[in-house]
Amino acid sequence: EKLPGVRKSGYVLPDALTSLEDVTHYNNFYEFGTDKESPSRTAGSLKTRPWTVAVEGDVQKPKVFDIDELLKVAPLEERIYRLRCVEGWSMVVPWVGFPLAELIKRVEPTGNAKFVEFITLHDPIQMPGQRSSVLDWPYREALRLDEAMHPLTLLVFGLYGEVLPNQNGAPVRVVVPWKYGFKSAKSIVRIRFVEQQPVSTWTQAVPSEYGFYANVNPEVDHPRWSQAKERRLGEFFKRPTLMFNGYAEQVAHLYAGMDLKTFF
Amino acid sequence: MPAWTSRRSSSGTKRPRPGANALRAAKAAVFLAALIPLAKLSTGAVLGTLGANPIEKIIRTTGYWTLSFLLITLAVTPLRILLRQPWLVRLRRMLGLFAFFYGTLHFTGYLVLDQFFDWPAILKDIAKRPFITVGFPSFVLLIPLAVTSTDAMMRRLGGKRWQRLHRLVYVSAAGGVIHYLWLVKKDISDPLRFATLLTVLLGFRAIVLLRRRVRAVSAA
């Protein structure tokens, strides 16, 4: 199903796109199984209409958005981003969405709002993977407010010009291209503005391996493997991983003065 | 020689034994069956149906079958005792060699497909990535076992020494299971299945050993 009124953007890459087939059949989405082929097979059980997203917490104008209303908060644009997984593989995806900042401006965060937390649907009937306690459901992720407001941070409704396939986080997800993929929460039902730094699901599961920031960084190894290189899907030779996944120019200032080994 | 490896242990009972032809047929069947995972993988590689990350698929699949064949090999002794089918031991060498075969494919897959001979990266992996630190020696340990698997080598080493050497397979299997356990991010159900099976298989041997000790003590 095509998304209407999608305009092209200046966010393009010299890199070749990863095929639609690969983007939609190689998914880390534990709500639908822990291997990468499962989500494409089992995510059919997810019902993406009706769907609401509650935007709440330290904001002047909290609001429960119907998904079709949320889609119209700002014009949809196509942006081609690199996606780097913490496991050492990467792809290039033409996402469709608008900057999360557009939504944030609407709800007017108060001075207390320092972090934005994203919460995924919790429904073991629709999400069979949640019947196993492999992670602490629902899936939670969070960004610092300035990271969430950054123009690169995208609220995503589609890919390849089409409505987001269920296995890619339908009907709405966030995409933060300079961080490892797990930071980009899928199938979001709640967005909370809070003062204290939230503990995200993977950090809670294995604090030594998955930090709050999770910025792509070839110089800071994952405790169990190197992050210096990555395999771009479809390529034989590994390529060197770029600082902040190649978005250093745009985002490095967010972390000025921080020791990225400590705040990994 | 422990009772469960001695061919004489069956001499007292009159169990039907497969003839030479039946044994040959059984060996051929096991040999062909053991090649099925490789055949499926090769077909997938040729047809391009190994998914978005075929290299990962090849390495994972060959690793899975290395561990599986190690456990199947370790199951031969318990099975032949429990089922009273001493001839099963005649399949053991082939099964063990298939574990080595898939282990070689797994290791070569890592070396060539994953790293493409990037020696500094490989050495760093062995030193710094715990699951590779334990996986690498687990594979290397299988090499002397494969080399000494022939009848001639068995005779040259002598039964006792040969057997002592081949107990290394316990270490290799345990290392392989830990390698798998440390590889996965969070869902440890698959590695735990292997760990449970290995515990049962090694536990069986411990019990047999213990009972023999007890019997030896009470006889004395």
UniProtKB/TrEMBL annotation, chain A:
<feature type="binding site">
    <location>
        <begin position="30"/>
        <end position="31"/>
    </location>
    <ligand>
        <name>Mo-molybdopterin</name>
    </ligand>
</feature>
<comment type="function">
    <text>Part of the MsrPQ system that repairs oxidized periplasmic proteins containing methionine sulfoxide residues (Met-O), using respiratory chain electrons. Thus protects these proteins from oxidative-stress damage caused by reactive species of oxygen and chlorine generated by the host defense mechanisms. MsrPQ is essential for the maintenance of envelope integrity under bleach stress, rescuing a wide series of structurally unrelated periplasmic proteins from methionine oxidation.</text>
</comment>
<dbReference type="InterPro" id="IPR036374">
    <property type="entry name" value="OxRdtase_Mopterin-bd_sf"/>
</dbReference>
<feature type="binding site">
    <location>
        <position position="173"/>
    </location>
    <ligand>
        <name>Mo-molybdopterin</name>
    </ligand>
</feature>
<feature type="binding site">
    <location>
        <position position="85"/>
    </location>
    <ligand>
        <name>Mo-molybdopterin</name>
    </ligand>
</feature>
<dbReference type="InterPro" id="IPR006311">
    <property type="entry name" value="TAT_signal"/>
</dbReference>
<dbReference type="GO" id="GO:0030091">
    <property type="term" value="P:protein repair"/>
</dbReference>
<dbReference type="GO" id="GO:0046872">
    <property type="term" value="F:metal ion binding"/>
</dbReference>
<feature type="domain" description="Oxidoreductase molybdopterin-binding">
    <location>
        <begin position="48"/>
        <end position="202"/>
    </location>
</feature>
<feature type="binding site">
    <location>
        <position position="27"/>
    </location>
    <ligand>
        <name>Mo-molybdopterin</name>
    </ligand>
</feature>
<dbReference type="InterPro" id="IPR000572">
    <property type="entry name" value="OxRdtase_Mopterin-bd_dom"/>
</dbReference>
<dbReference type="Pfam" id="PF00174">
    <property type="entry name" value="Oxidored_molyb"/>
</dbReference>
<protein>
    <recommendedName>
        <fullName>Protein-methionine-sulfoxide reductase catalytic subunit MsrP</fullName>
        <ecNumber>1.8.5.-</ecNumber>
    </recommendedName>
</protein>
<keyword id="KW-0500">Molybdenum</keyword>
<dbReference type="InterPro" id="IPR022867">
    <property type="entry name" value="MsrP"/>
</dbReference>
<dbReference type="GO" id="GO:0043546">
    <property type="term" value="F:molybdopterin cofactor binding"/>
</dbReference>
<keyword id="KW-0732">Signal</keyword>
<keyword id="KW-0479">Metal-binding</keyword>
<keyword id="KW-0560">Oxidoreductase</keyword>
<dbReference type="GO" id="GO:0016672">
    <property type="term" value="F:oxidoreductase activity, acting on a sulfur group of donors, quinone or similar compound as acceptor"/>
</dbReference>
<feature type="binding site">
    <location>
        <position position="168"/>
    </location>
    <ligand>
        <name>Mo-molybdopterin</name>
    </ligand>
</feature>
<feature type="binding site">
    <location>
        <position position="120"/>
    </location>
    <ligand>
        <name>Mo-molybdopterin</name>
    </ligand>
</feature>
UniProtKB/TrEMBL annotation, chain B:
<dbReference type="GO" id="GO:0005886">
    <property type="term" value="C:plasma membrane"/>
</dbReference>
<protein>
    <recommendedName>
        <fullName>Protein-methionine-sulfoxide reductase heme-binding subunit MsrQ</fullName>
    </recommendedName>
</protein>
<feature type="domain" description="Ferric oxidoreductase">
    <location>
        <begin position="62"/>
        <end position="175"/>
    </location>
</feature>
<comment type="function">
    <text>Part of the MsrPQ system that repairs oxidized periplasmic proteins containing methionine sulfoxide residues (Met-O), using respiratory chain electrons. Thus protects these proteins from oxidative-stress damage caused by reactive species of oxygen and chlorine generated by the host defense mechanisms. MsrPQ is essential for the maintenance of envelope integrity under bleach stress, rescuing a wide series of structurally unrelated periplasmic proteins from methionine oxidation.</text>
</comment>
<keyword id="KW-1133">Transmembrane helix</keyword>
<feature type="transmembrane region" description="Helical">
    <location>
        <begin position="194"/>
        <end position="210"/>
    </location>
</feature>
<keyword id="KW-0812">Transmembrane</keyword>
<keyword id="KW-0349">Heme</keyword>
<keyword id="KW-0813">Transport</keyword>
<dbReference type="GO" id="GO:0016679">
    <property type="term" value="F:oxidoreductase activity, acting on diphenols and related substances as donors"/>
</dbReference>
<keyword id="KW-0285">Flavoprotein</keyword>
<feature type="compositionally biased region" description="Polar residues">
    <location>
        <begin position="1"/>
        <end position="13"/>
    </location>
</feature>
<keyword id="KW-0249">Electron transport</keyword>
<comment type="similarity">
    <text>Belongs to the MsrQ family.</text>
</comment>
<dbReference type="GO" id="GO:0009055">
    <property type="term" value="F:electron transfer activity"/>
</dbReference>
<keyword id="KW-0408">Iron</keyword>
<dbReference type="Pfam" id="PF01794">
    <property type="entry name" value="Ferric_reduct"/>
</dbReference>
<keyword id="KW-0288">FMN</keyword>
<keyword id="KW-0479">Metal-binding</keyword>
<feature type="transmembrane region" description="Helical">
    <location>
        <begin position="165"/>
        <end position="182"/>
    </location>
</feature>
<feature type="transmembrane region" description="Helical">
    <location>
        <begin position="63"/>
        <end position="83"/>
    </location>
</feature>
<dbReference type="GO" id="GO:0046872">
    <property type="term" value="F:metal ion binding"/>
</dbReference>
